[in-house]
UniProtKB/TrEMBL annotation:
GO terms for biological process: late endosome to vacuole transport via multivesicular body sorting pathway. It is a multi-pass membrane protein. Belongs to the OB-RGRP/VPS55 family. The lineage of its organism: Eukaryota, Viridiplantae, Streptophyta, Embryophyta, Tracheophyta. It comes from Linum tenue. Keywords: Membrane, Transmembrane, Transmembrane helix. The keyword Transmembrane helix applies. The chain crosses the membrane at residues 17-41, 47-67, 79-96, 102-127. InterPro entries: Vps55/LEPROT (IPR007262). The keyword Transferase does not apply. This is Vacuolar protein sorting-associated protein 55 homolog.
Length: 137
């Protein structure tokens, strides 16, 4: 990529941002449709988990990388709470379905919304990888 002109690199970067925006918008649309199509707004509880998901990393991680081994107990606690929030994002729709509050369609839309958000996060990490070994650039 080093031999490409600057305007081509900026165009590719804009395309990557557009792809991320489309993925996140698709996840939000599925989240709202899971509630609106079935006239049941209980699946919006997963939005609370989406908001809580990055908080431990923002508060406790500091400038440390999440993908490296750490001896810091704060970093380990932030990884634990982030993992618990991730599991909660999947568990809330499953528990609502088990309790009979939502149907199969809403559960499928909720889980597909979650996986679209995960794909968007993975694409973001691979696009803005600091060590330069990203496959998407």
């Amino acid at each position: 990529m080093a031999d490409l002109p600057g305007y081509v690199r900026s165009c590719l970067q804009t395309g990557h941002l557009a792809m991320l925006a489309i993925l996140v918008s698709g996840g939000i649309v599925l989240q709202v449709l899971a509630c609106a199509l079935y006239n049941n707004w209980w699946p919006m509880l997963t939005v609370v988990m989406y908001v809580l998901l990055p908080m431990p990393l923002l508060f406790f991680a500091g400038s440390e990388s999440v993908f490296q081994e750490s001896d810091s107990s704060w970093m380990n606690a932030s990884k634990f709470f982030t993992g618990a929030s991730t599991v909660g994002s999947i568990a809330i729709p499953a528990i609502l379905k088990h309790a009979g509050i939502i149907g199969w369609g809403a559960l499928a839309m909720e889980l597909s919304s979650f996986f679209i958000f995960v794909i968007a996060i993975m694409c973001y990490i691979s696009i803005y990888d600091e060590d330069g070994y990203s496959c998407m650039l």
